[in-house]
Design brief:
With about 200 residues, the protein is α+β, with helices and mostly antiparallel strands. It has two domains: about 1-75, Serine Threonine Protein Phosphatase 5, Tetratricopeptide repeat (Alpha Horseshoe), CATH 1.25.40; about 85-190, Nonspecific Lipid-transfer Protein, Chain A (2-Layer Sandwich). It has helices spanning about 5-20, 25-35, 40-55, 60-75, 85-90, 95-105, 110, 160-170, 185-190; strands at about 115-120, 125-135, 135-145, 155-160, 180. The longest helix is centred in the first third of the chain and has 17 residues, at about 40-55. Helix 1 runs antiparallel to helix 2, helix 2 runs antiparallel to helix 3 and helix 3 packs antiparallel against helix 4 (about 60-75).
């Protein structure tokens, strides 16, 4: 934007393109301003106007909805929705997917100095998942029950049902779970997990 004279100058040029009917290029210019200067009210208002025009002119329902939704968000008029994930959807995930979702939430810089190893033994599947947190990343591998994995033993081993696993991940106490080792390890892992971003906004930086 500096090459074009800054945010105000880019907005002025975008208005010219919009007036000439080149709405897509106007939207591209304005989008750069909004991302670089989120507080630039002029850019947000102009981009919302361009998106409305694009939406009204679009024959495709999906694109029309996307443009008009983005315009509402830019103006702070997007309705609040329930972003909670249904328990049925979570319970349908494979254990590997559950572990991957935890790994995606690890705050790398905060977890950089932390090292821990934890085993989950799922009674319904007769398999053990070994979770290792090291160098700010959570990795896992599964192996058959009774198989001896390589490396140091886990500092915490949990033998539990799938229902107990889902309850534990939801913050429930470890009641009825066969536990061997240091239960504080679970707390240490949870302490470096960021809150899940279930549904980020469609446009805002």
């Amino acid at each position: 934007m500096e090459c074009l004279g800054g945010g105000d100058a880019v907005v002025a040029r975008a208005r010219e393109y919009a007036a000439a009917g080149d709405l897509r290029f106007a939207a591209t210019l304005l989008d750069h301003v909004v991302l670089a200067e989120p507080g630039h009210s002029g850019a947000r208002g102009e981009l919302a106007s361009v998106y409305r025009r694009l939406g009204y002119a679009s024959a495709d329902g999906g694109r029309r909805n996307a443009y008009l939704t983005a315009a509402l968000e830019l103006q702070g008029e997007l309705p609040k929705t329930d972003r909670a994930v249904a328990p049925e959807a979570v319970s349908a995930l494979a254990v590997d997917q559950i572990v991957d979702s935890l790994a995606a939430r690890v705050n790398g810089p905060r977890a950089w100095e932390m090292h821990l190893v934890m085993d989950w033994s799922l009674v319904e599947e007769s398999r053990v998942w070994r979770l290792t947190l090291s160098n700010g990343a959570l990795t896992s591998r599964s192996f058959a029950e009774g198989e001896q994995p390589p490396g140091a033993p886990a500092g915490l081993s949990l033998t539990l049902s799938r229902t107990q696993l889902m309850a534990m991940l939801g913050g429930a106490p470890l009641e009825g779970v066969d536990l061997q080792g240091d239960p504080a390890i679970l707390g240490r892992l949870v302490s470096v997990l960021d809150a899940p971003d279930l549904m980020p906004g469609p446009l805002a930086p």
